UniProtKB/TrEMBL annotation:
Ranges of residues in domain MaoC-like: 186-286
Organism (species): Pseudomonas lundensis
Protein name: Acyl dehydratase
Gene3D superfamilies named among the record's database cross-references: 6.10.30.10, Hotdog Thioesterase
Domain ChsH2 rubredoxin-like zinc ribbon: 18-53
Domain ChsH2 C-terminal OB-fold: 55-119
Pfam families in the record: MaoC_dehydratas (PF01575), OB_ChsH2_C (PF01796), zf-ChsH2 (PF12172)
Length: 314
């Protein structure tokens, strides 16, 4: 694929939209006084002219408003995308966007059809463009850049997974180790994600949400992620622990024995995680496995989150 395709240049007003896409979220503005949804990004509401707009996350579900199939590239750099389905879609909030449809044959496309968002990766820096596909299509499978070698870490890793029966006490005790697993995949903690968490949790303290003030006043020289946000991002970390426990009827997250936030995660940082089995013990209701899961900023010796997760197998 050519790397010379024109790319959107985020402005002060539109940056939250592009940051949202990087985090695979659709953020659009809504007018606080009158409730009007607004897209493209603006300083004021086009209906009541108020300068009081908030960015809100929406599902990205949409209806096809209009489309055309183009077979002649608008620029030579787009030759690899021909034929291209240029479209105008209407989000469920009523705003319309110019975009293109992916993963659909022309015969499958009709005006009024329901669409879902595709967070299409367009460069190695994690920039994404918002495209759309049919609601019955695999939107996740359409995200990757065509022509880019996809890493296939899952298959070889799976081959190395040891299956351990819940009834095999000796093998379970053998999992306990001082050595951590290899690092997980990496996740970017950007300001859009931090802002969304601030909105969700109600913790909108300036040290998380006000980059300008944080630059001047924070000991960290900028905004930092909430510890709780970094903690829950462990759900996005694919860990290769090298084992799989079998023969249980139920597995529950029993909470955490210990949770610490030893060092901050600055906005924009990339994090990854690793884990080790700290303890396995029989309890009345089953077998409890304590997994020490540590999340680090890439390159940092000191973890940002230490979480000793207790998993109960029954
Ligand atoms: Zn308004």
């Amino acid at each position: 694929m050519s790397n010379n395709k024109p790319m959107p240049v985020p402005t002060e007003i539109s940056a939250p939209f592009w940051e949202g896409l990087k985090a695979e979220r659709v953020l659009i503005q809504q007018c606080n006084p009158c409730g009007q949804w607004v897209f493209y990004p603006r300083r004021h509401c086009p209906v009541c002219l108020a300068h009081d707009l908030s960015w809100r996350e929406v599902s990205g579900e949409a209806t096809l408003y209009s489309f055309t199939v183009t077979r002649i590239p608008t620029l030579p750099d787009f030759a690899d995308e021909m034929p291209q389905m240029l479209a105008v879609v209407e989000l469920d909030q009523g705003v319309r966007m110019n975009t293109n449809l992916v993963g659909l044959e022309a015969s499958e496309v009709s005006i009024g059809m329901r669409l879902r968002p595709v967070f299409a990766e367009v460069d190695a820096q994690g920039n994404r463009l918002l495209r759309f596909t049919g609601v019955d299509k695999d939107a996740a499978g359409l995200r990757q850049r065509p022509g880019v070698e996809q890493p296939a870490p899952v298959e070889p890793a799976r081959a190395a997974v040891r299956q351990i029966a819940l009834s095999d006490d000796a093998a379970l005790q053998g999992l306990v180790s001082e050595t951590f697993s290899p690092w997980s995949n990496q996740v970017i903690v950007d300001q859009a994600l931090i802002d969304a968490f601030a909105q969700l949790s109600g913790d909108d303290y300036w040290i998380h949400t006000d980059p300008e003030r944080a630059r001047k006043q924070s000991p960290f020289g900028g905004t930092i992620a909430h510890g709780a946000l970094v903690q829950i991002l462990q759900s996005r970390m694919q860990l290769n622990l090298g084992y799989e426990i079998t023969g249980f009827s139920n597995m529950v997250n029993y909470g955490s024995d210990r949770l610490r936030f030893p060092s901050p995660v600055p906005a924009g940082a990339t994090i990854h995680a690793r884990a080790r089995v700290k303890k396995v013990e029989k309890v009345k209701s089953g077998t409890q496995l304590t997994l020490e899961l540590n999340t680090h900023v890439l390159g940092n010796e000191r973890p940002s989150v230490i979480n000793e997760l207790v998993i109960l197998y029954m």
